[in-house]
């Protein structure tokens, strides 16, 4: 009986698959520069011509780009791969913030669970650094005057949890929503900081979530992520109800003050 011959994969194809996997898993992020060709070839233990061929294939697919002045970069367009015109609409309409928070609750609860199960020492180190940056943004009076910087630090901490979950679909979905996530957090923080001790409570929630992931307590991490987002959602709903009551009172005042209501 004759058996079909086994074809050995070409080295350039193997390198291509490795680089694709690194982009998918988030090791290589949109906009990041690849190491120098010689360094990358040494890391992979391959020849520079094979590496160069793999890079050319990925460039032809739109995954890598070369910039003037040298260097090969992961394409910035990959950050928009999960883009949708609906997301742009959502980002401009505050009344849909509750929808964003409900989606975050569903996604971030499960990513926190998996992060606690799967986070590597490198993931935990990154989580700690992002948490410290977030803590600094809440404590530093100069940063407190810039809601966008606070929101970026907050969103970066939550994104690092998604990275630690090691699920490429979860990661790229949340990363694709990063701009919308930042804008949602800007609005939410502005409302929440009107409440007494809101910053301290939010940091306590973030710290509890960090510690649960660091300790591998998956169910606790999922619960804490839900409790954090439920607190944000409750604060937003309270604000919306207060604004609705104020608008009704204003309409009644205008009606009673108008001798010729229409």
From TrEMBL:
The keyword DNA damage does not apply. Residues 9-77 form the HTH gntR-type domain. Gene3D superfamilies: GntR ligand-binding domain-like (1.20.120.530), Winged helix-like DNA-binding domain superfamily/Winged helix DNA-binding domain (1.10.10.10). InterPro entries: GntR_C, TF_FadR/GntR_C, Tscrpt_reg_HTH_GntR, WH-like_DNA-bd_sf, WH_DNA-bd_sf. Keywords: DNA-binding, Repressor, Transcription, Transcription regulation. It comes from the Bacteria. The keyword Transcription applies. SMART domains: FCD, HTH_GNTR. One of its GO terms (molecular function) is DNA binding. Transcriptional repressor for the pyruvate dehydrogenase complex genes aceEF and lpd. This is Pyruvate dehydrogenase complex repressor.
């Amino acid at each position: 009986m004759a058996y079909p011959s086994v074809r050995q994969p070409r080295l350039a194809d193997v390198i291509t698959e490795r680089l694709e996997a690194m982009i998918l898993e988030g090791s290589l992020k949109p906009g990041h520069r690849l190491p120098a060709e010689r360094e990358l070839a040494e890391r992979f233990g391959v020849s520079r011509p094979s590496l160069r061929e793999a890079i050319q294939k990925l460039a032809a697919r739109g995954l890598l780009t070369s910039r003037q002045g040298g260097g090969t970069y992961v394409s910035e367009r990959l950050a928009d791969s999960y883009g949708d015109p609906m997301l742009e609409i959502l980002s401009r309409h505050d009344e849909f913030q509750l929808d964003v928070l409900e989606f975050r609750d569903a996604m971030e609860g499960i990513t926190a669970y998996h992060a606690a199960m799967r986070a590597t020492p490198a993931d935990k180190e990154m989580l700690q650094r992002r948490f410290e940056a977030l803590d600094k943004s809440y404590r530093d009076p100069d940063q407190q005057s810039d809601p966008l910087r606070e929101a970026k630090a907050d969103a970066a901490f939550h994104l690092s949890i998604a990275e630690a979950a090691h699920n490429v679909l979860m990661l790229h979905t949340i990363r694709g929503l990063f701009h919308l996530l930042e804008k949602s957090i800007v609005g939410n923080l502005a409302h929440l900081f009107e409440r007494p001790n809101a910053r301290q409570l939010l940091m306590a929630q973030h710290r509890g979530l960090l510690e649960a992931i660091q300790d591998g307590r998956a169910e606790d991490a999922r619960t804490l992520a839900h409790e954090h987002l439920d607190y944000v959602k409750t604060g937003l709903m309270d604000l919306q109800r207060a604004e609705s009551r104020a608008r009704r009172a204003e309409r009644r005042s205008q009606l009673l003050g108008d001798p010729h209501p229409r």
